[in-house]
Amino acid sequence: MVAKGGCSTRKALPNSTYLQVMGQVQSEQLRDRTGDKAPATAPESASEIPDCQTRVNSLKYILSKKQKTPLFARGHWSTWPAFGCGQTILGNHKPCCAPEGRESSNKQALLTIPKPQYLEELESYLRKELQSLDLTEKNAQELKLQPYREIFEFFIDNFKTYKPLLSAIKNEYEVTLAHQKKTIRALEPLKAMVTTVSEECTRRILALQEKEKDEIYLLKQEKQHLLKFIDNMKEEKSSLQTQVEYLQASVAEEYTRYLNQHDAHKLLLAKLNEMHHERLDMTRRQAQDVKGEDVVKLTLALKVARQDLTKAQVKLNKMIADYGDVVPRRDFESLEKKYSDLLQEMNILRKDFDRLHNEYETLLEIHRETEQERDNFCAELQRVQQNCTPRPNWEKCSEVVPGGAERWDGLAEGKTSEQLMDVLLEEIGTGALKEINVFPGWGKGGNVPVYLRHEGEVKNKKLTKKDVVNILKDIWKEKIALEQQTGKRSSLPEFFLSYLQKKFGDAAAMEWSYTLYENMRLCRSNHVLSSFYDILTGKVGEEQYHSQNELISSLQKELAACDSLNSGSLTSEQFSTAVRETFPLKRKESIQELVDVSRYKLDSTEDTINYISLFEEDEEGNATPFVAKLRSQHVREKQEYLRQLKNKLGDLTEVNADDLKAAFCSIDPDIDDRMLETYLGLALRARGEEPEQGAVAVETVLERLLAGDVRRVGPTPREGTTASSEGE
């Protein structure tokens, strides 16, 4: 590097500038020999190099420090071949010689100068380090790059004057390499996603090809039949064309004969007239000369005329016999035009028939689906009619519920009888809870939850539902933040108690715990309270809560991505497309339910949906009907999935891991090994226990799966084709 820089500087700069640069280099070498150190002006590497420098330093630690020390203690720094190059140029410089001659003489002079010892040691050091590396490892390229980094650092440390610039160059390269590695790591999930999407598209294409195979076969047969029909028509047309050409030639020949006969007839008439005039002249001359007529000559002429008449009559009869059945050209062209019109009309009618046939098949399929839906609705109606009881008059509740009829109408809007019963019990329970001043303690037994272990009476804090919702949301927020920081999943009961102790103190923690517990136990209609209570008491797993939140979050992101104008509103078609993209396994009816419930505040004429308002909550944590419908569909789909699993197990009362694995793979062929192991671990072990070695009861397995986060990975085998067509 120094040699190239020295030679190029000598060629580009004047003699005075070159002498100044060479003086600086020699003075720098003199300071290195005497021990003077140039002032360090390089920037702090710790403030400019990113986090990847730590990993680079860890790789550098692999090489021994004992190998680095001799390279720094090798005497002064040599400028070979800069010094030799400069001397050669000055010694052999000829003003009149060509540039090519000067360059060849410079090369010969360079070859005679030996390579410096320090450069040979650096090259030897680099070869040894590269030979000692194991290039079969995954990070072989990084290990191979490390010796080059150290050689570059040796250059930086020896070049005191250029050390800041070389350090900056090295730092920029390190930053660029780190950025490229980060970009590669970010693109790896996209590669996997592209592979998954490609496989899904291939599977859909194969399904469509299988569906259309019969129809393509029928169309091919029809095509062969039509091709044969066209060939026959072409042969018939060729035969008719041959006949027409033959008839045209015959007509032309007869026409020529007719012209010849016509000309002969004219000549004969002219001769007859001439003979008649001659006879009249002869008669007049005979009358004048009183001589007798030439009877023999007249008899001969009459005989010749009769022979010519006989020949003409024979030819006329032959022409009538030969051309009596010939069609005129005008009639032939008219028939040909009529045939082409009929053929074009037949093609149009055939296309209309094919289109009507396709419409008929589509309508027939829609009719089958409608008939199946009708049968399902009839069966459900009969079941409901058998099980239903007389609907109570819920309007009476408005007389006893605090707030009157207006508040009761708000509570009862869109709820079923069972939900109204929960609301009524919740109102009664919360009213009674406000009258209680203390709670009896549950004791400190081992079967008592850790957050309720207390002896004696506990004071009732008399919290409102809004306060309880805010506290529970804050607990979830703190727990999720702690798990993201530590990377471990903590138990909700223990975290619940520790949160209350940390926020309210050990003395008042039990008062808050009992108050929150009683409010959660009574308020079953509120999703925040009921879900926290079910997870706290162990009825359902915490994964189910996070799974529902992930579904809602993914739908929000997809809707925001479709809103290119950031207006907060989408059309019904855009909204339906976004829901279908987010949940590709949902049925068409479920997607339509979500679209319908999203328009509960809109008029029938409006086509825009404010998707942001669909995810809002009131001050008591109650979600909109859209989010409630989304959660209910999630639970219903999980129940249907487990119902199919139960039907696949059949009459088995106990199952093991192999039975469950076979059943899951049968009803969900797209499930991967990691998800399958998760489901098996959830079904075959109790919460926090080791897996059971023997068989487990089917009901126990279904209860454990219902409490956990279980969902379908791919479409069912019998619905794979239908789901693909609906998705398209």
Structure description:
The protein is built from 27 helices and six strands. It is an all-alpha fold and 728 residues long. Among the domains are: 2-183, no CATH class; 215-326; 632-727, no CATH class. The strands form three sheets. A two-stranded antiparallel ribbon has the order 1-2. It has a two-stranded antiparallel ribbon with strand order 3-4. The chain has a two-stranded antiparallel sheet with strand order 5-6. Helix 1 (2-12) packs parallel to helix 6 (82-91), helix 20 packs across helix 21 and helix 23 crosses helix 24. The longest helix is centred in the middle third of the chain and has 77 residues, at 213-289. It is elongated.
Outline of the structure:
The protein is mainly alpha-helical and 728 residues long. The protein is 71% helix and 2% strand.
Distance between the termini: 63 Å
Number of helices: 27
Pick out the low-confidence regions. 1-80, 82-105, 719-728
Give the total of beta strands. 6
How confident is the prediction overall: mean pLDDT? Answer: 77
What keywords describe this structure?
elongated; 2% strand; disordered N terminus; mainly alpha; 728 residues; disordered C terminus; two-stranded antiparallel sheet
